[in-house]
Amino acid sequence: MNFLDGSLYPENQQPLIITAAPYAPGWLPSDFPEDIPVTMEQQIQKAVDCYNAGATVLHLHVRELDGKGSKRLSKFNELIAGVRARVPEMVIQVGGSISFAPETEGAAAKWLSDDTRHMLAELDPKPDQVTVTINTSQMNVTEHAELADFKGTSREIPAIFTAYKEMTVPAQPGWAEEHIRRLSEAGIQSAFQCYNINSFESVERLIRRGIYKGPLVMNWVAISGGMDAPNIYNLANFVRATPDGAVLTVESSVRNVLPVNMMGIALGLHVRCGTEDCLWNQTRTKKMSTVEQIGQLVRISREFGREVATAQQAREISKIGVFYDTVEETLLANGFAPNRNGGNQGFLRKAG
């Protein structure tokens, strides 16, 4: 992305898209019973509350009545339909992991099979986006946290702590290509989860080779443990590689969420918050609900002078429902340099 004179002025930035992640598959309802929804009505109402607070993208996971993360697509269909009925303009983004939470204490925290994840392309009603991970990676969500972040929660249980410490993300090239193809054919946007510059470079190659032909919508996932650490050097490196036509949301975990989001707001990027990412306020004196976190970002953004996107603006910025016919059109629309003649990677000079 290019940062010219005035790039930090709010009038030169897009309205802020706030993604809410309130369903918290990595926690148990007992970790924050006042805020983690369990019944279907509670889960639908949580989406409504997040929307009313200022979030226009809903990162969606589903729980069963016993509080465990649901792996049943019928439950996803039910929640999506309920949210559509109550807040029809909200952008629904299904978490591509489905639920990585361990089934029992001591069980591994792992993502579901390739075939099961492919079935997200068959959800009905269909979501606007499904998150797509690129490149298999370690996902140790405990690594940059402090023990105090887990005090009084299920993560204090050694077996559960170890399950999340040892988690990996399966995202082999063949799976990713097939998943993107199925989502695109269903009219669902791939929302790429990029863990570092390597993930981004792989996404760029998928575009240059014609495997993905749509708007480039990404999260920079700075949660450490095999992914980028949340610091300005990693963020600047990632942003520098990102083309101007892309939509980039910053994402972190534990008490890194707020400072990373503040950097994102200042730079004209977009943000994500919610109990999936952090349970606490910055002084760790109380737990902070997803709605409270959204309200905090709305207030901060307005202090910067940057307005918060409406749902319609969020859809337009992310180009929901848009796909392109050719590789060349995709590269141009996203702000990439064209493929060189006779090749599908890289360039020496932009066409004059």
UniProtKB/TrEMBL annotation:
Organism domain of life: Bacteria
Pfam families per record? BKACE
Keywords for the protein's UniProt record, in alphabetical order: Metal-binding, Transferase, Zinc
Database matches in InterPro entries: Aldolase_TIM, BKACE
State whether keyword Acetylation applies.
no
> Can you provide one Gene Ontology molecular function annotated for this UniProt record?
3-keto-5-aminohexanoate cleavage activity
Q: What is its EC number?
A: 2.-.-.-
Reply yes or no: does the keyword Phosphoprotein apply.
no
Q: Which cofactor does it need?
A: Zn(2+)
Name assigned to this protein: 3-keto-5-aminohexanoate cleavage enzyme
